[in-house]
Design a protein that fits this description.
The protein is mainly beta. The protein has one domain: Beta-galactosidase, Chain A, domain 5, CATH 2.70.98.10. The protein contains three helices and 30 strands. It has a nine-stranded antiparallel sheet with strand order 11-12-13-14-30-24-23-18-21. It has a six-stranded antiparallel sheet with strand order 17-28-25-22-19-20, with no helix packed on it. A five-stranded antiparallel sheet has the order 1-2-3-4-5, with no helix packed on it. The radius of gyration is 19 Å and the shape is globular. The mean pLDDT is about 95.
Length: about 350
């Protein structure tokens, strides 16, 4: 079942909010501004239905704040592009920068800033919201015109499938993701206490001071970033702060994607989230810095309010061949997916 409602307007353009509900009562909402994922309501072990995804309940907050990228569709390229420069074949490109000298999450006019066309598709076992549009090189400063589809699908097994499809008229980059922050508590004010995290990764990317990968892959062994077994997330954050002298976890992991790439569990509510993807990277960010006063579900947003788990090809891979290939060839469609699977432990 799908409910469509007016979420607000940008000029004369309506922004629609779509809420999909499955046979178990699970609800997933998304909006046509930025193709953002805004809510995921799922039951806990006591059958209580509550939201586990950080998002605003009004359009104005999304328009005023981009720094947290709450639930945002990210593209053309997730993560940072060093110096906003790259080479494809013999051509050198310079794209707009928006974080010092670097380009972050597609630049100032990334996917999350755009208004998307939408279509609803319903069947017996699942429901999909399809966001689609053409992004010209003049709009975002990247080479080539890119046709994109971002598809959210909810099925009756309490799974959310996110599919990205891209096809362009010339060579360009395509490395999209979703910037979803999760908190599996029934109350966001508990921050990330009670959560454990497991990541199917033997390595993480070494980062320079500006958080751009150096190209080196470090072994997670004997570091606070060893999540190969379930680990208390709050304690891991504190260990990372001490070990690396930084404000929290903000690291890309090179994952084995032959099965689940990560599992997040809250032992108080019994909620379990397994993440599956055909990408080789998972960026984990524990919302380390909150620059302004924002509220989510009437709670003041604080650092460690949620954990972002962003499946993508490793960041800045255009500069590091060992990170993966994100070059989109002309007239050749590329398809990526992320799947969120909810269960009770």
């Amino acid at each position: 079942m799908v409910q469509s409602e007016l979420f607000g307007c940008i000029g004369e353009k309506e922004i629609r909010k779509y809420t999909m509900t499955n046979s178990n009562g699970m609800k997933v909402s998304c909006i046509s501004y930025g193709a953002k994922l805004t809510e995921i309501f799922v039951k806990d072990k006591q059958e209580n239905l509550s939201n586990v995804l950080l998002g605003f309940d009004n359009l104005d907050s999304y328009l005023k704040d981009r720094s947290m990228f709450l639930g945002a569709a990210i593209g053309r390229v997730g993560g940072r592009i060093a110096k906003g420069k790259f080479q494809i074949k013999d051509n050198l490109y310079k794209v707009p920068t928006n974080e010092g000298e670097n380009t972050l999450h597609g630049g100032e006019n990334g996917f999350d800033t755009l208004i998307w066309n939408s279509e609803v598709v319903e069947s017996k076992d699942d429901t999909s919201i399809i966001f689609y549009r053409t992004i010209t090189s003049e709009e975002d400063g990247f080479p080539a015109n890119l046709q994109v589809k971002i598809i959210y699908t909810l099925n009756n097994k309490d799974e959310v499938l996110i599919t990205f499809k891209g096809i362009s008229d010339d060579y360009t980059l395509f490395n999209p993701t979703i910037h979803s922050y999760f908190n599996l508590n029934n109350d966001f004010s508990k921050l990330l206490s009670g959560h454990t995290l497991q990541i199917n990764a033997d390595n993480y990317t070494e980062l320079a001071d500006d958080l751009v990968p150096t190209g080196k892959l470090n072994d997670v062994s004997e570091t606070p970033l060893d999540f190969r077994e379930q680990k208390d997330l709050s304690q891991a954050i504190e260990d990372v702060k001490r070990h690396f002298k930084i404000s929290g976890i903000d690291h890309p992991f090179k994952v084995d994607n032959s099965g689940n790439i990560a599992t997040l569990i809250n032992h108080e509510t019994g909620r379990r989230l397994d993440i599956e993807s055909n990408r080789n990277g998972l960026v984990v960010y524990t919302l380390n810095v909150v620059d302004q006063i924002w509220k989510v579900q009437n709670k003041k947003v604080l650092p460690e309010f949620g954990v972002a788990l962003e499946a993508q090809t490793l960041p800045d891979s255009i500069h590091h061949k060992n990170f993966g290939d994100i070059v989109l060839k002309p007239n050749k469609e590329e398809e990526y997916y992320i799947k969120y699977k909810f269960n009770i432990v």
